[in-house]
Amino acid sequence: MRVGTSRVPEARDAHRAPGSRYGDLAELGIDPDELPDGLVIADEHARVICFNAAAERITAVRAADALGQRLDKALPLEDLEGRRWWQLTDPYGGLTIRVRQPERNLLLPGGREVLVSARYVRTRPTGPIRRVVVTLRDTEARRRTERSHAELIATVAHELRSPLTSVKGFTATLLAKWERFTDDQKRLMLETVDADADRVTRLIAELLDISRIDSGRLEVRRQPVDIGAAVGRHIQAYVAAGQPADRFLLRIEQPLPTLWADPDKIDQVLSNLLENAVRHGEGTVTIDITPSVSPREGEDTGTSVTVSDEGPGIPEESMNRVFTRFWRGSKRGGTGLGLYIVKGIVEAHGGTITVGRARGGGAEFRFTLPVGAPAYLA
């Protein structure tokens, strides 16, 4: 703890103060410098008696300079309207029923934002202040979250604008000039509207998936899944759409354990990985399905699916960003949300997913799922 020798007992007393929710840090063997958030404690005279390492880092004030200073001098905080926070809140002279200040954004000298909350420790209920305990947090993590949300909103707005403009344009034209178009022209415009409506539906489904993944509410409805047959159906769909049949190589190592998973969500994973290989890769797309060690503790067996291509692959410096939101690689197109959702679905099943370089030089995605059998089958 960054305190002078004469200050140590006072700081320890602050941790033992009646009504304190921090507990006795000394008894727990926790040094305030080990705390991830800034901790500043002032005594009954508003003098700083504790200023930990995180507080030094966040405020750029040395503990040696802060200790013994008045709290308002050591932490000259202002609100976003430029008002001095300590004068505004007046912890030592304000209402005696107050016990805390909720977390809020405040400004340090120089305009740097920090998240500040305070706890008032009193000798007795409604009694005089014995300690003021202040916690400080950097706003960078919150800013990253806000930027991520802003990027998501911008991406969604951009992706929705194009199909909705098309739908609006074609339907308005058809309604205004229906008799002027031939049946073939009408069919073409209606097919375009239908395809654009599908794009909007897919985007909304992706947004719902992201919301469930981020909140931990993605539901998995397990039932037996024939993973080989599922991959086969996707390959047949690509061949029917014009891809040459010899572009796909499916290899299944038998015997496979019975896989219990959500068939719709596994289809979603396979669809994203195969589309990624077909659209961004080159050469043969190889799908290997093999039994493997379960990624979940307590289970012996699992199933691995590896999708690889012979294209240029993913640059080494981008490997750690593949499963993040909005990653699109070198080629534009799509929302950049597919692989983020894939990872969320695989992990919701208790599985793992990795990306690497295939033997042929292309990209290789491998996900492993536990068999997930219900307890009554164990």
Strands across the major sheet, in which order?
2-1-5-4-3
Rounded average pLDDT: 84
- Count the DSSP helices: 11
Strand content: 15-25%
**Class derived from helix and strand content:** alpha+beta
Query: Tell me about the biggest sheet?
Result: 5 strands, antiparallel
Percent range of helical residues:
25-40%
List low-pLDDT spans: 1-24
In words, what does this structure look like?
The chain is an alpha+beta fold and 378 residues long. It is 39% helix and 21% strand. The protein is built from eleven helices and twelve strands. The protein has helices spanning 8-16, 25-28, 53-59, 63-66, 71-74, 85-89, 140-177, 183-215, 227-240, 263-280, 338-348, and strands spanning 38-42, 48-51, 100-107, 113-122, 129-138, 223-225, 248-252, 259-261, 285-293, 301-308, 352-357, 363-370. The strands form three sheets. Strands 2-1-5-4-3 form a five-stranded antiparallel β-sheet. It has a five-stranded mixed β-sheet with strand order 7-9-10-12-11. Strands 6-8 form a two-stranded antiparallel ribbon. It is elongated.
